[in-house]
Design goal:
Blueprint lengths: L1 H6 L10 E3 L2 E4 L6 E4 L9 E3 L4 E3 L4 E7 L4 E7 L8 E2 L17 E3 L3 E5 L7 E3 L6 E9 L14 E8 L5 E5 L1
Antiparallel strand pairs: 1-11, 2-10, 3-9, 4-5, 6-7, 6-12, 8-10, 12-13, 13-14
Amino acid sequence: DQCLLNEGCVTGLGERRVVRFGSRMGNLGTAAFDLGAPGAENPYWTLDSCHEAYELEGFAHYELVDAAGQVVLTGAKNGYCVRDSEPWELDVPNVNCYSYDCNGQGITPGCADNYGSELQCQWIDITGVSPGAYTLRVRINASRAIPELDYTNNGVDVSLEIGRGEFVVLLGP
């Protein structure tokens, strides 16, 4: 739809070929990642007139990079509910991961939030991209608009192979 085009989730209208992926972000620091409530009075949030909702504009940035190191395309995810979904270390059950929800957003130290591949804009639009080896680069808070103690762990690169058919094979981090 037009909103997805406006947000940079797709590169055109009509039938699209996309690579869907999940992402998980955690708070590995010692302080809360506190975003507060979405709204006009909160500087982190922007009102998206298309969806009529507050969003973290440009919070997640995606790039598809070819074997020569050239950025082939970019994408983004703006709509978020940053919350405590689960402990970062899944085998550590005693972490209190219930402080933040969609009304008061953030992530408690030691906790994480998940974004499944079924969610809107959890993809890159590869319509028209030539088959070959690529790197999917995902960066969170890349513009550093939200203060953090450490920005060095805000991204991941994943190798992938784009074929001629409908499927794309992720080769791992």
